[in-house]
Amino acid sequence: MSHYNAPTRDMRFVINELLGLEKLAELPGLEEAKPDLVDAIIEEAARFSGEVLAPLNRVGDTDGAKLEGETVRATPGFAEAYQQFVESGWNGAAASPEYGGMGLPEVVATAAQEMWQSSNMAWGLCPMLTAGAIEALKHHGSDEQKSLYLEKMVSGQWAGAMDLTEPSAGSDLSVIRTRAVPEGDRYRLFGQKIFITWGEHEMAENIVHLVLARTPDAPAGVKGISLFIVPKYLVNADGSLGERNDYRCTALEHKLGIHGSPTCVMSYGDNEGAIGYLVGEEGKGLAYMFTMMNEARHKVGVQGLAIAERAYQQAVAYARERVQGRPVGHKDANPVPIAHHPDVRRMLMTMRSAIEAMRALAYSAAASMDEARHHPDAERRAHQQSRVDLLIPIVKGWCTELGLEMTSLGVQVHGGMGFIEETGAAQHLRDARIAPIYEGTNGIQANDLVGRKLLRDNGQAMQTLVAELRQNIASLSELTPLAGWQQPLNAGLEQLEAATEWLLSNGAADPVQATANSYHYMMLAGYVTGAGLMARGAFLAQQAIDAGSDDPFYRQKLATAQFYIEQLLPRAKAHAESVSHGSSAVMAIPVDEL
Amino acid sequence: MSHYNAPTRDMRFVINELLGLEKLAELPGLEEAKPDLVDAIIEEAARFSGEVLAPLNRVGDTDGAKLEGETVRATPGFAEAYQQFVESGWNGAAASPEYGGMGLPEVVATAAQEMWQSSNMAWGLCPMLTAGAIEALKHHGSDEQKSLYLEKMVSGQWAGAMDLTEPSAGSDLSVIRTRAVPEGDRYRLFGQKIFITWGEHEMAENIVHLVLARTPDAPAGVKGISLFIVPKYLVNADGSLGERNDYRCTALEHKLGIHGSPTCVMSYGDNEGAIGYLVGEEGKGLAYMFTMMNEARHKVGVQGLAIAERAYQQAVAYARERVQGRPVGHKDANPVPIAHHPDVRRMLMTMRSAIEAMRALAYSAAASMDEARHHPDAERRAHQQSRVDLLIPIVKGWCTELGLEMTSLGVQVHGGMGFIEETGAAQHLRDARIAPIYEGTNGIQANDLVGRKLLRDNGQAMQTLVAELRQNIASLSELTPLAGWQQPLNAGLEQLEAATEWLLSNGAADPVQATANSYHYMMLAGYVTGAGLMARGAFLAQQAIDAGSDDPFYRQKLATAQFYIEQLLPRAKAHAESVSHGSSAVMAIPVDEL
């Protein structure tokens, strides 16, 4: 069984040094988040994830969720871990103190999130979905709804679930068919939902489903879709639980990975109709969902980072232990652990430097969320919100693509043993495979990036980001050992600028040009932004070394940054070139000749 | 269930037009391989793979090989398919007529091989391993051994297996421990082997194991290893079967993919010792194995191509059928199949152009094998043999890396359904994951390429290849529509040359420099060689169009070549750049600080 030790040193570096927690903690509402307290929280989350969640990761794979009658039986141990999680208050880490949450800055909650997802991605989806439901209710629920549901969802006593997809409505939710028929001040829902993560289970006392459905006279398309609260057990006015609602889980999907997470087919209203309560106004359901989309997508991006970190730790442990072959160039020496072989080292360094860049990017987006919410200056809030909007599809798309690649590298490091399920390396790859798909496929992220985040503001948010990254790079000139890094870093930046320019010139008028290579643009933006953040990290590390620190962490930071520049950043140019070629070759072969 | 239709049009194009079968069929020993006959063979192999093997692919995954007592029960239907395969003479497609084989040119046998592996990779491993054993015996067996074993192995009446790996001896076979104790003119073997593909089954009457083992007084290291024939049933002088030998399969591995292929733990000599017959001389076992390594590695590369093709066909079928979303830029139009969306098209075109480049490369290596064996001119034979030696690690490494990427893209095209096992898309990814690992990990391929194939001849074989590719590109200037392609193609070639130069200058003296980025060099060589072959294909296609052909295939060929140049070739530069940075960042973090 593989262990998991949360990489708290790098987390603290990113939070404290790279992103400046101390200044963040000056913002109104975040005053509690002093570095000492945050350090203690991170250490405690590390302990919980390593000791409680990580040991259940493998059994989640081999003895996944099962449907027994109409009951979903979670993996043995999952419910107990959930109980401990709730009792420790972790479920409300990011939630507002108003509803009993810890009110941690998003940047700190993101570190905790990374740990839950690294240690047990399938399990971690349960609180992750609850958080999404909390967010939607917080923004759009009535006061009555908030007071009835939120506190228990924040504590974790009740879980949440999000019911969007139907067999014919996946990427395109506008064609949803589930019906919601008004009955007094509530509704009766009828229909089928699929791909409902943790849609049914017994880990919490109640499950609050947020369900997208269509009212009888609603117009076709997105404007006819409303959002409903459909609790598993109806909730009495005093908060106590009443009758079981009329829905059931009719099947669990048999999936490639995350076996511990029940993916439910849900049937609503097989009898008298499931009772639902309208959230906000009719016809605004999809818009409400989108308000929480940023956070949900951010969390999926963090999953890409998290699963890569888990795979890295397992690969390093194996490579240090597995003795095979002599050191290169020393035929007569004794056999050594494979971590000594340059190609194995290359794989491990690829994983490590990608992980550090992903962490810097994902946490940086979280810090922007914090400022966007808490900064006293409205202009600054707006600026940070547009930064968040820009970064979200990059975090989701780039980190989940890299998550997939890095878990696959983790398998490769294990050689033949990587292909054997008992080793556990393959599980990470199988688990990681979902992240580029759910919460909006990466194709959708890419189109969102180019269509909504780039073309709509004519590239302004991107130009602001590029300017900031350029500053990061320029500051390297102050530190002699890093001055030479400016050239490749600036080259990457120029490629991003050129591709941006190309899309602004060609994509606005022609949506096929905008979307044919939007994937490449998303990856390009990820590599270059990652590079700018790695450069900033290296700057801080070099400063610390120059100031006399002998913490090996700083030396390692310089090494991973250099490796990133040499081996990951060069991919940016390939993506930039593909963008510049436009759509003609992409669309050249007609669909029926493919 | 997904269907498989062998891509015979592209296969025939590569064999006949790109590689010039007609000239190949003038070589002594290949005279039978006239285009008409070869076309008929390909069509028949296409039928067999589509109708007999492909329908068994899914059940191989869901109801894989099982160990029942000491008997390995193959997937239901596999044995019957094997029987039909044998009766149709396919098992001996590539084998010499001297032993009852068809004696097909390797380039044609490779097309058949691709079809077996596309239609059913797990099943296809059984004849693939037999072919390896045939090859080893043909080169190194005594006349008596050949007459006793070869004919029945060529027919498929008996299967073969290769027993190399032990728990402590994988990539480094020099530390093999299995003992072979002489007893008269034979040996008794004792020891354990792992990862033995199709090491035990009942599909054939007998299984001829080729086992690496160490004789009692043998020196340590590779020179102490000998090769033994260890048949499941001892063979009497008249070829009839005698006693069951003293070995057994003690366990099957529980693997990520290729569930239909039993991966056996083999125990030799639990009782009186397994009877084995020495092949060739003592101490030369590993050298003998290496004589058949080229072909085995080539076949694994073909698996990468094959599984990508299967995934592509399934992704195209789904993308043409799954209706979701409106055409980009037409919000009010009716929903369309997702194949119309540019990003989906990009994924499908990525798969298709990569597949065509892989096919051109793998078949081209096969054509070189044919010339290396059959050309009357010794110099030409030597030239082609060095070409084969150079290309093999590229075919194995590059095609299996792309196989992995393309099967993963196949999953992505399916969206959420791709993650559901019943869809079958995930199986291809799981199956594909082994190919970069077995038959020498891709790290070993990369080191072989740089160490043995590049540095040893001081880059000569590579320079010859580059010169040929340059001619392919130069010829584009004759055809106006393609003249503009020369620039990016030549740029790729220059990157390959520069990286070659760098490795020759820095790698010869420092094996760490040679191997730290050998993976990138292998990938670079793959992309650039693939580009040169795509360019040649485009040249021929344009010529055909200019000559009046209205076969849409040629138009498609131009599109895939253009797409390849725009979207895959740019990756070459990223790999080249990583090579040029050398080993310092790769090795910067000490093993115990990883």
Automatic annotation (TrEMBL), chains A, B:
Tell me the ranges covered by the Acetyl-CoA dehydrogenase-like C-terminal domain, including all copies. 466-590
Keyword field contains Isomerase: no
Key words of the record: FAD, Flavoprotein, Oxidoreductase
UniProt GO molecular function: flavin adenine dinucleotide binding; oxidoreductase activity, acting on the CH-CH group of donors
The record ties this protein, via PANTHER family, to: ACYL-COA DEHYDROGENASE, BROAD-SPECIFICITY LINEAR ACYL-COA DEHYDROGENASE FADE5
Q: Which cofactor does it need?
A: FAD
**Listed name of the protein:** 3-methylmercaptopropionyl-CoA dehydrogenase
Where would I find the Acyl-CoA dehydrogenase/oxidase N-terminal domain in this sequence? 42-157
Its taxonomic placement starts with: Bacteria, Pseudomonadati, Pseudomonadota, Gammaproteobacteria, Chromatiales
Q: Which organism is this protein's natural source?
A: Alkalilimnicola ehrlichii
Task: Report domain Acyl-CoA oxidase/dehydrogenase middle positions.
Answer: 161-267
Function (record text): Involved in the assimilation of dimethylsulphoniopropionate (DMSP), an important compound in the fixation of carbon in marine phytoplankton, by mediating the conversion of 3-(methylthio)propanoyl-CoA (MMPA-CoA) to 3-(methylthio)acryloyl-CoA (MTA-CoA).
Its domain of life reads Bacteria
The Acyl-CoA dehydrogenase/oxidase C-terminal domain covers 283-449
Q: Which reaction does it catalyse?
A: 3-(methylsulfanyl)propanoyl-CoA + oxidized [electron-transfer flavoprotein] + H(+) = 3-(methylsulfanyl)acryloyl-CoA + reduced [electron-transfer flavoprotein]
**Is Flavoprotein there in the keyword field?**
yes
**EC number of the protein:** 1.3.99.41
The family classification in the record reads: Belongs to the acyl-CoA dehydrogenase family.
